[in-house]
Structure formats: structure tokens, C-alpha cells
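thought: fold this chain, then report.
action: predict
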Amino acid sequence: MTKTVDNEPVVRVRNISKRFGGNQAVDDVSFDVTKGEILGVIGPNGCGKSTLFNCLLGQYRPDNGSIELDGIDVSDWSPPRRAKHGLARTFQLLQIFETMSVRDNLKTAAQEHIGSAARRLFMRPDMGLDGEVDDLIERFRMAHLADELAGNLSYGQQKLLDTAMALVSKPAVAFLDEPAGGVNLTMLADVEQQIRDLNVHDGATMVIVEHNMEFIFALAHRIVVMAEGRVLMEGTPDEVRNDPRVVEVYLGGH
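observation:
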């Protein structure tokens, strides 16, 4: 990676835990997300990655712990309030509007971050977003699909659109949940390139949960490895790749 990140944490995660009955899904997880970095979160199935994401974005209320955005504790905020203040996300299951065009999907995603409903009511019909939306469509090489219904796109194209929708508002941090999942190799290279370009050229900060190791090792500045609900280790891709604990978790039958 050629992008140099700042040392300033934009997100601080402290001691997040979440239990479902007798299952401790997330256990005392802490880490920082530094402004301008791509942070990967990896681990075997059932290690708590998705539960952690849902705690951080407000879909689940953690049993204890806190999350701060730019020094403000947002632990008690609703998901929409977190989104309005700069925490955007994608889901494993696509959150696109199949009966709307690619352009209108992006406009709708952007509108959710423009103040109150009253403010949106008095803005001009395009919300002043056409330029930003068209720029992102070009950046994601989807100009030829701009007026196509999202439901007509291939799965890989829908994944790309879903990622673009999370980034259209230029969030403080975009949390991407398995952006490579189910995407064919040709489209996967496109997804990887767009994420890298947005990070290098726009300074976009991203946290990516991913099973595709090649994908995350190619993109991440730093990786948090989870096992059995806890942070096993964190480090650079090279440090993670060569850590015997990580090899044991993935190859040792856990």
C-alpha cells in the first residue's frame, strides 16, 4: 500500500462484549480505527465478526463497552443517528432498491445523510446531489449502468453498487461487510481497485470484514484477527500472515 495514514483515531472501540444466551459471541474487544486507513477484520466462521459489526453500528446493543466517533461516545445512539454522523455500512445481504436505477439508488443513499426531513423538503428536487452521484458513478465505472434498474444488474455489479451507496455520503468511516463475498474474479478486481482508489485519492477510512484472505491482505494497512469472540492479534498484513497463532486458528481445527 502506498497510502500513508495519520496517527489520529477516528473511531475508538473499547471492551465491546455481546452474549446470546450461553454463547459469548464477542468478548472484550478493543481497537482503534485510524483516520485514512483500511482496517481489516478477519477470523474463522463463528468468531464474532458480524456480531461485532452489528454492535458497532447499532443493530445490536452490546452488554458492555463503548464506541467513540471523533471523541464522542455514540454507544447509545440509534443506527440512523450514527449514520448521519459518519458511520456508514454495507450488509452481507445486499441493501439495494431493485426497482430503482443505479443513479436513484445512490441519490437515495446520499439523501439519508442530508439533515432533517424539513431541510430536505426545501432543497431543490435533485438535492444538489447529481454532481456527486455522477462523479461516483464514473469512479466506479458504472456510467453505462447509471439508468439501469438495480435488479437487472449481475450480483457483482450489485455488490459494487452496494459499496458505492455506503461511500456516496463520504462518511467518516465506512464499514464494509464482506464486499468480496460471492463476487466473480473479474468483478472482484474492480471492487478491490475502487476501494483502493477511494482510500488513496480521497483518504476514505474503511473497516472491512472479509473471508477472502487475498482480497483483504491486498487492501488493508492493518488487520484485526478474531477467534472465539476475542481479538487474537492485530498487525500489518505481513505480521498477520506470519503469526503462528493465526496459522493455528485457520489450519489447526478451530
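thought: worth noting. Confidence is low (pLDDT under 50) at residues 114-127.
final: C-alpha cells above.
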